[in-house]
Amino acid sequence: MKLIECPRDAMQGLTGFIPTATKTAYLQALLAVGFDTLDFGSFVSPKAIPQLRDTTEVLAGLDLSQTKTRLLAIVANLRGAETAATFPEIEYIGFPLSVSETFQQRNTNKSIVEALAELARMQSLCERTGKQLVTYLSMGFGNPYGDPWNPEIVAGFTQTLSDLGVGIVALSDTIGASSPATITPLFSQLIPAFPALEFGAHLHTTPATWREKVAAAYQAGCRRFDGAIGGFGGCPMAADELTGNMATENLMAYFAEQGEELGLDLGAFARAQAAAGSVFHF
């Protein structure tokens, strides 16, 4: 069982700039909890995501000597991946590949064909530099833009990623459109069909529907989940109304009910929740 905390996703859509020192202190608190991975920042155009223009400075301020948590940075193109790969502290490089042509253009200013070519170069870069590429299949559970979507399309993308040597594929909701009716068939079909791949669930949700979504993915065999404390976040490139991340505290509660041992420091988690107040002003 792997729990990935995503403060990058939680912060990226906020309009008021969070001071670098505040970001760094929050991430440091999260590193003490014991999450498998911390999706901590991104190397993308500061015009597109101004909130995370200080990722390099934040990284320089982190003390990684006492944590087992691995760092993941999101990129939108090969240039960003090349930058991320220069930092030995970063183990994972994440790239959003959309099954929606419309969203791929909105998110990375590329067509799907162009994005796949870029992804192939990123995978080669990761193999050369000892990094691991995490591909997020955004709009993986449905398409709000009218582009074609069905499970066979998602399976086709997954086959392409597998052929390229990608090891981790996170099916991503992005706008909160998923339901058990789409989550269950996808994971139930893809996990046994691609045993060499590690599948993740990046689910955005409203407070009323989180449990049914987590349960559907978990019962279908998924054991890698993304969340964000407080359920903050959402993709500013996807829609004007942001649908928040899966709340980490809800994921923790559900997995505790299932008897899963996450190995988290609950005291450190409480302190991280308190630190979140200085970032999200709740």
Automatic annotation (TrEMBL):
- Keyword presence, Metal-binding: yes
Supply the SUPFAM superfamilies for this chain: Aldolase
Q: Which PROSITE patterns match?
A: PYR_CT
Q: Gene3D superfamilies from the entry?
A: Aldolase class I (3.20.20.70)
Q: Does the keyword Lyase apply?
A: yes
Residue ranges of domain Pyruvate carboxyltransferase in the record: 1-270
- The protein, known as: Hydroxymethylglutaryl-CoA lyase
Organism per entry: Hymenobacter fastidiosus
Specify the taxonomic lineage: Bacteria, Pseudomonadati, Bacteroidota, Cytophagia, Cytophagales
